[in-house]
Specification:
mainly alpha; 13 helices
Length: 248
């Protein structure tokens, strides 16, 4: 039996304002957040520091970020401080893109690898890729290919950690989709370095390769591989079932 338009509108309104529906939604969101606690705790800290960035003057912000920059000067004088503190600030004003990237890459990786493995992959890349990119800058300065003022250049953010997670997630994807994903990330991180080699691009590419190098650690995960085709079939089946129930 088909549902009339008036009855459908009434159902939709009641369904939306129903306390039980909101309670169920809230429980679902809470379960999702609990499934990757380190990821979302980190994201919350980034929200706090981004709010601070919006509340201070431009000059204060420049000074604040410069003090936490993983540049050559700080790596030579206080490496531990800048390597840690740079993970809690973003080089920009916008937090929402990080919300998307953390949900797409970090949360699935933490659930798949577990918190400790996820942290080992990301932190290793954050440190090693920083020294690779800054080491190349040091060589360029020594050879007169770069200005010596770049020893104090600003280099801050969470992108090296993220790039490594993007790389290691290759092993979470089922064949043959794994090859498609690998091609896409190699192009995403590799093409900019080929077109215009820069320290940040080299750092991102290095981090992604470091993530790929953690294949032995990724093999230790007991969670099943992610299959896009199976997900598509599951979603299509759910939609078809819902449509059949609405018509009945």
């Amino acid at each position: 039996m088909l549902v009339s338009a008036d009855r459908f509108e009434e159902f939709t309104l009641v369904d939306v304002v129903s306390p039980s529906r909101w309670r169920t939604l809230g429980q679902g969101v809470w379960c999702y957040l609990r499934s990757a606690p380190w990821t979302f705790s980190w994201l919350l800290l980034l929200l706090i520091t981004t709010t601070i960035q919006h509340s201070v003057s431009r000059a204060t912000l420049e000074s604040l970020l410069a003090a936490r920059s993983t540049n050559l000067h700080h790596l030579a004088t206080d490496p531990l401080h800048v390597l840690v503190s740079s993970l809690f600030w973003i080089d920009g004003y916008f937090w929402l893109p990080y919300l998307l990237m953390f949900c797409v890459f970090h949360a699935p990786a933490e659930r798949w690898l577990g918190a400790w493995r996820w942290a080992v992959v990301g932190l290793t890349a954050h440190v090693v890729a920083t020294y690779i990119s800054e080491g190349l800058l040091w060589i360029a300065i020594r050879q007169g290919l770069a200005d010596s003022s770049l020893v104090d250049a600003r280099d801050i953010g969470v992108s090296y950690f993220l790039a490594a997670i993007v790389g290691v997630l290759t092993y979470h994807i089922a064949f043959p989709w794994r090859w498609v994903y690998l091609f896409l990330i190699l192009a995403w991180f590799g093409v900019p370095v080929i077109i215009d080699p820069g320290l940040t691009g080299i750092g991102h590419l290095s981090s992604m390769i470091i993530g790929l190098a953690f294949y032995p650690l990724a093999r230790g995960s007991e969670r099943p591989e992610w299959n896009p085709a199976a997900l598509y079939l599951r979603v299509r089946g759910a939609v078809s079932k819902r449509a059949s129930n609405d018509i009945a």
